[in-house]
Amino acid sequence: MIFSGKVQADDISPETDQCQCGSTKAPLKSFFVSVLAQTASANFGAISFQTSSRSSSANPSMSLQVIKYPHPTLRHRSKPIRRVDQELKSLAAEMLDLMYAHEGVGLAANQVDLPLRIFVCNPTGKRDEGEELVLINPLIQRPKGNEAAQEGCLSLPGMYGQVKRPKTVRLSAYDLQGNAIERTVDGFLARVIQHENDHLDGVLFFDRMTEEALREFDGQLAEFTADYQSQQKSGGIPSDDELIGRLAQWEQRYA
Known about the structure:
Helices cover 32% and strands 21% of the residues. It is of the alpha+beta class. It has a five-stranded antiparallel β-sheet with strand order 5-6-7-10-11, sandwiched between helices. A four-stranded mixed β-sheet has the order 1-2-8-9, with helices on one face. The longest helix is centred in the first third of the chain and has 16 residues, at 28-43.
């Protein structure tokens, strides 16, 4: 997630070109090629778009909140969505509400504990301004050029670092109404989209930092981990096995 002002996990700041969102080092070019090879055909398979406003009692209900590193869903590779119903549309609306509440410009499903290939964004970070996007099964191709800018993550509050990304990419996706999206994006919006798409593959912004730069954050990452483990021991957060097990019901329903 990226946000305006100071960037947070999944938000990017239009004024400062900062991006926030959430470790392992990810191989860049080889990883990108691998992701395309594995998802290109899957992302654009048939999707069932439900027009009825009826809801299903089988849907696992939840109230969304931004999860913090090292929650396992942040490292879960999301599955392509195969059906869109009213409840999924409601979840997308709640994601937008949460994004704006955190003054963000983007929010990926992984960051709200959903294992689905969908994210929301608005490069202005302001409701009723700019371009609000809900992107289903996004695919990024044809990267051109590159530039560095500071990024951060709501799932890693207070942590920021320089990340190099392509300046221009080709985006393919669907919106909530089933319309295909095919467009070339550049500048700040391109960075936001790439940042959020990384989340769907379980990649956090610091995975794209140099090893030397990442060493500066060893202490912060250790603190995040210690706090998370402390909450698990006190019962405030379920075990990782239980958290991962919950993802299956969402995948069975929508993927």
